[in-house]
Amino acid sequence: MKHLILFFVGLFIALTLSAQTPTCYRIYLKDKANSPYSIDNPSAYLSQRAIDKRTRFNIPITEQDLPVNPQYKQQILGLDAEIQLLAVSKWMNTVTVYCPDSTVVLQIENLPFVDSVWAVGSYILHDNPVYQYPENPMPLVHNTFSSAKDTVDYGQGLAQIALMNGIPLHEEGFRGEGMLIAVLDGGFFGIETCSFYQDMVNSGRFFGHYSLMPDFVDTLASGWSEVHGTIVTSAIAANTNGELVGTAPAASYALIHTEWVGSEELVEEDFWANGAEIADSIGADVINSSLGYRSFPDFPQNDVTYANMDGVNSIASRCATILGQKGVIVCVAAGNDGNNEFYHIGRPADAFDILAVGACTSDSLITDFSSRGPSYDGRVKPDITSQGMETACIYPYDMFSFANGTSLATPVAAGLCACLWQAMPVYTATEMMQIIRESGHLYNNPNPEYGYGIPNFYQAYASHVGINDYKPLTLSVYPNPVTDKLILTNTDGNIQSINIFNAAGQLVLQHAVTGDALIEINVTSLPKGFYVGTATMESNRTATFKFVK
Questions:
Q1: CATH 2.60.40.3080 spans which residues of the chain?
Q2: pLDDT band at 126 (very low <50, low <70, confident <90, very high)
Q3: Mean per-residue pLDDT for 433-452?
């Protein structure tokens, strides 16, 4: 089953589709001969931002980057009035179309520039599509943002950013300014009106919204089709002090609608691949994709097995790999199958040169639903793990909630990836992803549940930019869980004060320290629950710790 790696186990939206009769086809083209595009004029198909990034990292522009030959595309579409364009992939040199007349498919197969045709879906569409494929990328709007040194009350988002030691990275001044994050997901209803996104919209950081979704006929309207992307984006982009601050609250965002929640057909991977190429063409730095695919019950002739999770079998996985190699940090949800008979990662989480993200709790325990690795060919998967249990997020109409799933773990990590790359701009995307893996708490002993483990983003930053006085946290916290007295040992004796916050991000206890190596904190008055502590060190640096009462 394909996972919209959503936080609702067993959510299926019935569609009135002809599940066996193909109507959607992926057409593999033989070449890009006589194309009006050339590698000498990349501005015709790449934004200046994308070109500048290729130049900065010495990533060549090759024939692979040339768009599909528009003459080939027009000849295909001109064969019959009912043919509709669904998706294209310049990297795979494919055109995906809706073509309900099987006799026309035979004509397509006989075109001299067509290599092969593969049935990928059975949608029923309206005669005239509502959405159009975006041919031209838009310019990025740069913005100003208040100093990251300002006091931030993360509200309900405190635990999920503290888990990966992201708070001191923000305090160093890196909150995503100037970084472009593309979100590939389902619908983004409410983004422009929800108060939690107004800072992004009003400051010009809402880069644009693309949709690849065709106009379905006879489908049951799915509310989750409209809002899943909105919920996912909130974990990264929200910036409401005291309520929810995301992991990259100052970044710019492009929203790319590639997913229809209610169907499960191979053609969805074509939408994903097309969306990945849009992200590349506009110059995205990071993509977040809380989507994944592992079977197609609405078009079972394309069903796959664990043996297909090898990074090369899927068009989405192959494009994810290329995207990572062309200068984008690619974050993909591992899947929610950990407690199912099929417990493996989906695709494109199996791709090379990406970060597949598993889910853990706020106290670092792996969730039972987080899909397990490795990839079929034996590579470590997931790559990293982030909080995906009771993750703070926002629904449309300003409704705050907690949700579960690798859908939520992935954006929490993706936002900090953008902040870290902002802090370390000399490294390539593939180098950054490796640095993030190496910061995982299990890097030297990875396993199929956590992969390389929970990243420590501030440690990754400090150890690579030469902060000479940086030392990993030397606090030992015990007993944990605690009943009445929490004991912290600090061999450096450099802690000045300690603040303790509850899971809602509210300050519940303050404790002054006189430089002692052993610190005792009376927590008898605290109710049972999970807590995050911040220790203020010398030079106003902070470190975090967690405990359960």
A1: 475-548
A2: low
A3: 96
Domain limits, CATH 3.40.50.200, in the chain: 158-465
- pLDDT tens digit sequence for 194-209: 888 888 888 889 888 8
The two three-digit tokens of residue 252, written as one number: 């710019």
**pTM higher than the cut 0.70:** yes
Domain 475-548 has CATH 3.20.20.105: no
CATH class of 24-121: alpha beta
Q: Please state whether beta strands 206-211 and 399-403 pair in parallel, antiparallel, or not at all (unpaired).
A: unpaired
Protein fold of 158-465? Rossmann fold (3.40.50)
Strand order from edge to edge, sheet including 94-98: 84-89, 94-98, 24-29, 114-121
Helix (H) or strand (E) holding 410, with range, is helix 406-423
Is the predicted pLDDT of residue 441 greater than 70, yes or no? yes
Q: Which residues contact 180 (CB under 8 A, 6 or more apart)?
A: 49, 140, 207, 251, 252, 253, 254, 282, 283, 284, 285, 286
Query: 305, 308, 330, 309: which is closest to 319 by C-alpha?
Result: 330
Instruction: Give 301-326 as a DSSP string.
Output: GG---GGG-SSSSSHHHHHHHHHHHT
List the 206-211 sheet strands across, edge first: 206-211, 252-257, 180-185, 286-289, 329-333, 355-360, 384-387
Buried b (16+ CB within 10 A) or exposed e, 487-502: ebebeeebbbebebbb
| Selection from 310, 315, 220, 324 nearest residue 258 by Cα | 315
- Cβ count near 193 (within 10 Å): 12
Q: Show the DSSP H helices in 134-266 as ranges.
A: 158-162, 167-171, 198-202, 223-237
**What value does the mean pLDDT take over residues 456-474?**
73
Residues paired with 522 in a beta bridge: 485
With a cut of 70, say whether residue 74 has pLDDT above it.
yes
Least confident range from 131-140, 146-155, 177-186, 454-463: namely 131-140
